[in-house]
Task: structure prediction
Amino acid sequence: MAFLVTAEEGSLSAAGRALGIAQPTVGRQVAALEKELDVILFDRVGKQLILTKVGLELVYYVQQMSEAASRVSIAVSGQSQVLDGEVCISAIDSIAALCLPPIIQKLRVCYPGINIKVIASNELSNLGQKEADIAIRNIQPSHPDLIAKKICDVAARLYGSKEYLDRLGRPITVAKLNTAEFAGFERTDKAIIPLRHFGLTLTQDNFSVICENHLVQWENTKQGIVVGMMLEAIGDKEPLVERAQPDVDPIVFPIWLVAHKQLKTSKRVRVVFDMLSDSLAELSVVDGSHN
Result:
């Protein structure tokens, strides 16, 4: 019973309140079950307890056998325990287009019953309204109904085509970059502030190409029209561009994987969550090195 209620409630303290017993007692009962079965049933993510793959297998059978299954909350009752159906992933357009395809290909091979829907948008999907099952974000969510796992830290740099950087004049200096044309989401100070990290003192006049789609900005960068920003893991593999400031440290920011806590017992969402976690970790800044 302690295992099932902990799975439903998401934490030992919440399970203790639901059962009317002390949190340490719930913890001991769960630990005893793990010891008896010689498995780990929960992963700790922040203050949340998330079922492991083994836990997902076990919770299904416990739900069937327990009279408490009739009182399972909405967080669990509607979730599929089979590996088929649709999982919706939300990500910014550049990650959706340039990072997700090989992960989706692997998912389709490993789990052909799972269909993937991708929302490629720079707006945050509302997971509480079920606009998506899983979101890839660069900010940690604060809503109590969301569970989040920090996957890694990634780096972003300025890139330009060889032809464009040749036109600026070698060697590329901060002074020369201050005269360059840039791609941006908007022609405001909000576009300028992040670029101060690179020592630049730009004005709104530097932003000659404005587009809310990062892929369009990147294409203009590749075609030698502007200087643009891209993840190091993507930009360094693109033969049409090179680093505009190879000796300057990049901007580093986190990648978070986010889902609604109601989905924590859905097997198909969990396997997609886990594969995204493992695959996106390859974008990581390794040991703080930016070679």
Q: What stands out?
A: The longest helix spans residues 23-37. The chain has three domains: 2-75, 85-150+255-282, 154-252. Residues 67-80 have pLDDT under 50 and may be disordered. The two ends are 52 Å apart (CA to CA).
